[in-house]
Every structure is written in structure tokens, then in C-alpha cells.
Amino acid sequence: MKRAIPLLMAAAIGCAATTAQAQTVSIWSGVYSAAQAKRGEELHAATCVMCHGPRLNGASQPEMPPSPAIARVGFLTKWAGRNVAALFVIVRHTMPPDAPNTLTDQQAIDAIAHMLAVSGIPPGGKELPADQNALANIVIEAKP
After folding, report:
1. pLDDT value for 11
2. Model's pTM, two decimal places?
3. What is the distance between the alpha carbons of residues 85 and 18, in angstroms, rounded to a whole number?
4. Secondary structure letter of residue 120 according to DSSP
5. Mind listing the pLDDT tens digit for each residue in 67-116?
6. How many Cβ atoms are within 10 Å of 10's Cβ, its own excluded?
7. CA-to-CA distance for 55 and 29, rounded, in angstroms?
8. Does residue 10 surpass a pLDDT of 90?
9. Which residue, among 94, 85, 101, 111, has the nearest Cα to 2 in the 3D structure?
10. Minimal CA–CA distance to 15: which of 86, 79, 64?
11. Per residue in 30-49, is it b (16+ CB within 10 Å) or e — as a string?
12. What H or E segment, with its residue span, contains residue 122?
């Protein structure tokens, strides 16, 4: 599985290259809706919490499998400079680790909206699209 992640990242980067002419926007500019984040919260409670914890801070409990934080400063710093398409590809195709490729596009993007909400990113009036070309134009920044 570890070899698949670089290939997935390369696909997301290639997607970004094809949309280089489009204007990029920051995650801080209201790129998801509150309703979308709520759906992601429900998905997290049902599917993701066992690995990423209730606070999305990774394996903080000894009985939890090793997993990274998927929200807040550490997450934003790790992903800073990348686009949301790259994150979407990882979530969509590798999560959950015991059943990869089982999340729908909508579930994956809703999960990302929840990650942004927990990270303190303000919602906006429209939903994040489950379209890699559009997501390639949304850049992750640790701070606005």
C-alpha cells in the first residue's frame, strides 16, 4: 500500500498541472459548507474515529492503531503548499486502511470538509466539489 500513495500523489499533481492556468484559492476563503462538514463529522464518527480519534488527533490512545493527526496545526503544517486534490486522492483511495477504495467521492470530500472545520477553517456558502481538477486549484495553507 505504501507504494500506491506516491502514485496517487503523482496523479493529483498531474491533475494540478493541467489546471495551472486557473486561479488558485486558499482553504481559508470559505471553500466548504457547514452542512458538508456536518456530513463529514457523521462519517468520521462512524468510520474514521477508530484510527484518527474523536478529536482527529491521531492515535492518542494505546489501543488505537498508528495514525496521523488529520486536523489542526500539525495537519495544516504537514500539508501546507499542497492542493486539496492531493488530499482527496489519499482519502478517497487509501481510507479506511482496512477497506481502501470503499469511500465514495462524496464521502471523501465530506470527510475533508470536516477536517478543515476541526482545523478552524471557516466555512463558506458552497460545498467542496468532488472534482480533482477543481480541487487542484484550492491550496492548503497553515495560516491565512
Report:
1. 52
2. 0.84
3. 12
4. T
5. 889 999 999 999 999 999 999 999 999 999 889 999 999 999 999 999 99
6. 12
7. 23
8. no
9. 94
10. 86
11. ebbbeebbebbbebbeebbe
12. none
